[in-house]
Amino acid sequence: MTIRKTLCSRFIYLSAFLGIILLNLISCSPIPDQKITSSPFPDLDSVSTSAVKTFQAQLTSTSLAEPAPLLTATPTPPPVESTPIPSQTALVVDTNVYHAELINQYPQDGDDIVIGEHFDMVWTIRNMGTEVWNESYKLRFVEGWPLGKYATVNLDRLVYPNEDVDIVVDMVAPPRSETAVSYWQLVNDRGETFYTVSIRINAILRPTATKTPK
Questions:
Q1: What is the chain's alpha carbon radius of gyration, rounded to the nearest angstrom?
Q2: pLDDT tens track, the chain, 214 positions
Q3: Smallest Cα–Cα separation from 189: which of 136, 139, 131, 128?
Q4: Which domain holds residue 185?
């Protein structure tokens, strides 16, 4: 019994010893080489081409998604209207009843008047209608340079058909050198205008006197 126990103890010890040696051998054995695979560098040409195609596709989709701008016409400015000149024809409906004709005037159109000078504008007008003009008829300023001292001048007497009347308007020449035009109209006792007269003068500086050589 003693000999068997001794042998068994040695066998167990030897097995343990061999097991330790085997474990050491296994732990010291080299690890098989691992293959390291590196990612290949990208092809720059292919990357650029792909980026360009992607950008072009985005532009195309954006242009299709956005509506085209509406074309708006440039507004045409309204035409500039010049100041209308009163008509020399009758302005009432029945021109047979209210009608006139200019016979003469003084000063004449285009005459020179010293600037700031007072003068009498005289229009000689003939009653060519069938109505008698009374003292409620008047000559009234309507447009242009207001040369008259007063805006209206009433007739001073009755004017029968085919009769002439002198209408005198107190006027003052402009205060500076220029050509001035003034328009006036005949108005009946119902406030209807039926004839237009006008005057155009040249306001000038007072001429200087020249001495006659002896």
A1: 60
A2: 454 555 545 656 566 656 665 555 444 444 444 443 444 444 444 444 454 455 455 544 544 444 444 444 444 444 433 344 554 444 555 788 999 999 999 999 999 999 999 999 999 999 999 999 999 999 999 999 999 999 999 999 999 999 999 999 999 999 999 999 999 999 999 999 999 999 999 999 988 766 666 6
A3: 136
A4: 100-204
Q: Residue 153 is inside which H or E element, if any?
A: strand 152-154
The distance in angstroms from the start CA to the end CA of the chain is 190
Looking up residue 131, the CATH number of its domain turns out to be 2.60.40.10
Task: Write the single-letter amino acid at 116.
Answer: G
Phi-psi region of 104 (alpha: psi -120 to 50; beta: other; left: phi over 0): beta
Q: Is residue 149 part of a domain?
A: yes
Q: How far is residue 146's CA from residue 114's CA, in Å, rounded to a whole number?
A: 16
pTM of the predicted structure, to 2 decimals: 0.56
Examine residue 115 and state whether it is found in any structural domain, yes or no.
yes
